[in-house]
Amino acid sequence: MTKTGNTNLPGAADSVTLWSSLPDICKLLNTPFDHAMANEECRFQHVQYKAGQRIYTVGQTFEMLYIVSAGFLKNVMIDGDGNEQILSFPMKGDLLGVDGIHRNQYCSEVAALSDCTVILLPFKQLSLLGKTYVALENAMYGAMSRELMRDHTMVAMLSSLSAEARVARFIIYLSDRFAGMGYSSKQFNLCMTRQEIGSYLGMTLETASRMLSSFDQLGIISLKLRSVEILDLQALQKLRRMPRSHHNDAKKTAFSRLAA
Amino acid sequence: MTKTGNTNLPGAADSVTLWSSLPDICKLLNTPFDHAMANEECRFQHVQYKAGQRIYTVGQTFEMLYIVSAGFLKNVMIDGDGNEQILSFPMKGDLLGVDGIHRNQYCSEVAALSDCTVILLPFKQLSLLGKTYVALENAMYGAMSRELMRDHTMVAMLSSLSAEARVARFIIYLSDRFAGMGYSSKQFNLCMTRQEIGSYLGMTLETASRMLSSFDQLGIISLKLRSVEILDLQALQKLRRMPRSHHNDAKKTAFSRLAA
DNA sequence: CGGATCGTTGATACTTGTCAAAGTACGTGG
DNA sequence: CCACGTACTTTGACAAGTATCAACGATCCG
To answer: Considering Cα of B127, then B132, then B136, then B141, what sign does the dihedral take?
Structure first.
C-alpha cells in the first residue's frame, strides 16, 4: 500500500490516504492472483469513515463498489414505511454495493458501526481491468457469488430456525469471521445494538436480549453487555440445527438439552 | 433461435434442440444489447426438462450458468440434516447457478416444477465473450445484481412481515412475474405445493394453507386448489406492509382492516 | 377403482411479540 | 469532575401468532 496526500472526499474522515494495488484487492477477497498484476501503477483509494457515517445511501447513483479493509458496518434496507431492516454486518474482505449494479442506483445503504476503512473500486474501471487481468474478473464474480451464498444461508436460517437457534448461529458466525481476521474466536465484542441484532435475525430486540441472557445463564457464553466469551461452542453448535423442523420428537429447550 | 438435431444430454428430455444467440440472451435478461452481437455464430443450447427432473444438484462441479427460457422451477438448499429449504421459484429470464462460482461447485439444487426449457451458458465461454461484448458482461453483472436484490427483499420480508403479509406479498410477486411474461396478472396457477410455499415463506404448510383460505373467505382472492384469482389487489397490497412493526398502534387483522 | 399425495380444518401448546418499568452505560455541558 | 439526559439493556407479565398433531376430504394417476 502507498501513502499520498489527504483525501477530500465528502463524508470521509480527514486523514492520510492509502492506496491498494490489484494483488491487495485479490488478497482481501481471498482469491488467487497472478503476479502480472503486481507491478502496475493502477491503485485504488482507501477512505476512512468514523462510526455512524454513511458510505452510500438508497437511491444514490451507482458508480462504485467497495471492499471493507477494516472495521465494522451495517447494510440496511429501508422499506416503504421507512422501517430499517438490517441485511448484513459487512466486515474485512466483504464486497459492498453490488445491489446497485442492476438499476444503476443503490437500493440499500451502508453505514459504519465503528471507525473503518473502505477501498473504492470504480465499477467501470474495474470492469475494464477485468479484461486484462482474468484473475481480477474471477475475483469479482467469486465475491459476488459469495455474497449470494451468504444471502441464501440467511434466508434458510430465517425460514427454518427458532429465535434461539438463530442467535446461536449468529454468535458462531461472528466467531468464525473474527477467527478469519486473526482475532480471537472465543472472545469478542458485538459492535451493534440489540435492536440491530434483532433486526438482522428477524426478531425483536427483547427476544435477542433474552436469548443472549439465557445462553449466559446456562453457561454457554459469558455475556457482559457487548462483550461475549464463548464457553461451550458445542452447545451453540447443537442449537444451530433446527427446532421448527416438523415431526421432530427430539425437540427440547436449551435447558432440557443441557440437562440430558 | 435455430433448430438442429437431437440433444443427448443426461437428464434432458428427448427432443429437438434449439439454440439462442447473444441478443436472445440479453433479451431474456431484459438488458440492452448492441447489434454487433447479432450476426455471430456463437449459440447457446436449449435443454428441456420434464417436471420433477433436476437441472443441477448440491456438490456438483460448477461449469454452467443457466437461464430459464420457459417453465417453472424451484431452487432448494439442503441443510446438514437433509432438510429442504426453498430459496426461490425461478422462472423465465432468471439466472441459475451463480452460487456455484465461489467454491466451483453448486451449493444448492434446482429442479423443474413443470416441464421447462433452460439455456446452457458455459461459464468460461461466457466470461471470454464478455471481453468482446461489453453489453454481455453488463448483462451478466446486472443479472447477478438482480438476484442479490431479490434475496435482500426476501430477507427483509422474512425478517419483518407476519405470515399473513408474507403470503400476500407472495401472491403479488407471482402476479407481477406473470404480468411480466405476458400472462394474466389476475388469474394464474400456483405451480408448487403448500409445503413448498410454506418452506419458501418460512412457515408450515398448514399456516400457508390457512392464510390462503382466509384470503379466499374474505373475498380478497378466489382460491380453488392451485388456481388463484386476485379479486382485491389493494387489500393484498395493504397486507404487504407490516404487521410486526414495533409500537405500531394501527395493527389490525385482515378482517378488521376490511371492516374499517 | 384404489392408493398416494396433496389440501383443509380444528384443538391445543409453545414461541415470540408487545407493553411497561427499571437499571446501566455513555457523552455532553456545566 | 460531576450531573444530567439520552440511548441502550434487561426483565416481567401478558397477548398474539404460529407450530404441532390429528383427522378427514379432495385430487390425481396408474
So the answer is: positive
Q: Let me know the angle formed at the C-alpha of B111 by B107 and B116, rounded to the nearest 5 degrees.
A: 135
Nearest to B151 among A155, A199, A242 (CB): A155
Which nucleotide is the nearest neighbour of A224, by CA and C1'?
D9
How far is B147 from A149, CA to CA, in rounded Å? 11
> Which residue of B149, B159, B201 is in closest CB contact with A102?
B149
**Residue ranges of A 101-130 with Cβ closer than 8 A to chain B:** 101-102, 107-108, 127, 130
The DSSP secondary-structure symbol of A61 reads: B
- Note the pTM of the prediction, 2 decimals: 0.90
Q: How far is the CA of B137 from the C1' of D22 (A)?
A: 55
The CB density around residue B146, as the number of other CB atoms within 10 Å, is 20
Whether A100 has its CB under 8 Å from any CB of chain B: the answer is yes
Pairing of strands B95-96, B109-112: unpaired
| Residue whose cell numbers read 441464501 | A152
Maximum CA extent, chain A: 65
Phi, psi of A55 (to 5 degrees): -85, -50
Based on the number of CB atoms within 10 Å of its own CB, is A255 exposed (0-12), middle (13-18) or buried (19 or more)? exposed
Size of interface A-B (CB pairs under 8 A): 135
Query: pLDDT (tens digit, 9 = 90+) per residue, B89-135?
Result: 999 999 999 999 999 999 999 999 999 999 999 999 999 999 999 99
